Predict the 3D structure of the following.
Amino acid sequence: MTRFHWTCESTDGAARAGTLHTAHGPVATPTFMPVGTVGTVKAMTMDAVRSTGAGIVLGNTYHLMLRPGAERVRALGGLHRFMDWPGPILTDSGGFQVMSLGALRRLDQDGVTFRSHIDGSEHRLTPERSTAIQHALDATITMCFDECPALPAPPEAIAASMRLSMRWAARSREAYVQREGYGQFGIVQGGTEPELRAESIKALTDVGFEGYAIGGLAVGEGQALMFATLEATTPLMPQDKPRYLMGVGTPDDLLGGVMRGVDMFDCVMPTRAGRTARAYTERGTLNLRNARHAADARPISPHCDCLACTRHGRAYLHHLFRANEILGPMLLTWHNIAYYQRLMRQMREAIGTGTLQSLADILRAGWEASDWTEDEMPQPAIPLAP
Amino acid sequence: MTRFHWTCESTDGAARAGTLHTAHGPVATPTFMPVGTVGTVKAMTMDAVRSTGAGIVLGNTYHLMLRPGAERVRALGGLHRFMDWPGPILTDSGGFQVMSLGALRRLDQDGVTFRSHIDGSEHRLTPERSTAIQHALDATITMCFDECPALPAPPEAIAASMRLSMRWAARSREAYVQREGYGQFGIVQGGTEPELRAESIKALTDVGFEGYAIGGLAVGEGQALMFATLEATTPLMPQDKPRYLMGVGTPDDLLGGVMRGVDMFDCVMPTRAGRTARAYTERGTLNLRNARHAADARPISPHCDCLACTRHGRAYLHHLFRANEILGPMLLTWHNIAYYQRLMRQMREAIGTGTLQSLADILRAGWEASDWTEDEMPQPAIPLAP
């Protein structure tokens, strides 16, 4: 059996490249985890997800406890078997979704009572219950149940919320059943206040987890403040444990996060964008519904090996979205996840060769440049039929 | 280059097994053609379509002329390149869709003027225009433009409509540009009147086409009358040319059609059913939204090699449809097309060995039997996680 641990293979400034070893296989870090909220990465088969090079995916406690139910998933062999992903799975604790989706929440020191956004039925999550659900789902990585305060909030409210989350983290750890190759992550809270972040890290490391997440960012504070908070936070986190920045972000956010010592990310952006015709590329984003793509036989990106880019032109994608065909979201989600995975691969390689800053300059210049011209990416030669 | 022709390899009663040779490759017949109305078989990648063994797919003149436009498709290299299907494509002439979808139709002896169901813009289709559009799309098989009368209608109306369609067939042939390996099919009309069908066949064979379709059936007349009409029609059709029964049908319709000498079929049923949780199986249809599948780890069918059946249980499909996840329609459409292709393969093999009647008995008994019991198809052994 594999012990759950992270090995650092190279560093470049604050950035780290390494491998997360788990019961369900290894994951090269830094890594981006596609979001499979209810047991499916929306609009993708798991074969397609695998083909992009993704090493680990997310599931969600809140959604899966409501439908189909954690015990149902357990009886069916766990989330890996259920969704056909034998690799590692990280499950969100449900804390964030209770706050953003659950109705009629009642928070007390013990946990949260809420009504399902699906059918209004009443449910309760506590650190113990969230941990047990994640166990039933067979999550490779279990997250601590935490409280996510609505922002903006006064510093005292942020502090009180963080301290509640730290007590819940200790209870989550108590409830966690250690298994070889599995791990549990504590979640650093404290808003954008460095002292609160430091206090949170101290509380979590006193308990001791297999990894540490940074929560409560990317909630509207802006990229500059997020990066400043990371700079004040990651240096205080254990050097030998993986660091996960929750719910982040754009390609530029990922780059900035990696350069500040983050190893793991998740975000719905690439999948959600794929369903709304927005393509991520080395030249920023494109809206494929835009009329300028209607007759363009070129791929979305000349650098992409996804099904959309190797077999179809932009004109076809444009047509699919205009005609509201399911294949549009299928192909474009695939493309976006492929782009995110390619980006992470480039960053891992650059860290290995000590060239992350130069990669960052190239990436940022690309994102700020406009779409490829026809000189840079010519129209393909298309023989016309007889 | 390949001459467009059909070779008969074996017969079993009226049923025929053979090969359709085309510029875009051979097709084993009898064959079922998945419907790719606007340049996509809904909810499937073309790789998935290929994996089911499908040999030829459909496109639609009416839909493609409105969006993205036939000249656009031509400029992008034709429908094969556009939709990533290098194999044969048959295009519907648009006649049926003008009648069922177009608004404010005005029919005259020359053609039909109608308004688009998408944006209300005015368009006109004539035999010449429909044929030119199908040429621009680069259809392997071009269909004659015909008039499809709304039923029920008095015999005189059916006769007048059929005779108009025969004049249009002659004009479609005039407009058709012969190309090596390509073909054009005439469409036999005449409702359920054997004399009208005979007159129609005479008119079409006097012109001469590479194949002959049977139109105007499966429009509400019922299976018994459809089969009776086929029995009066196919014996009068050329023996050495492929026969295509348009818009048909259920698995039982396909079996009955093959046993009455039909070689080609198309229908939206398996794809449409796949989007509404209905699965075709050897034991009839299942509704995967039904609560009885919620905890069932067994595949939809023990005989199916599609992605849904080889990787997932019914419980997962049930969950996807309950949660309105796109992967539900993706997996179930794949399953249904795989089922239809397996059915056609079984029929081709049975014709080759002269056992079609015995296959028919087995198939019908299965469709009438209820779902597999757990004795017949046991729950898979699922090891529970630690």
In short: Chain A has two domains: 32-42+56-235, 273-368. Residues 262 and 362 of chain A are 20 Å apart (CA to CA). Chain A has a mean pLDDT of 96. Chain A touches chain B through 49 residues (CB under 8 Å).
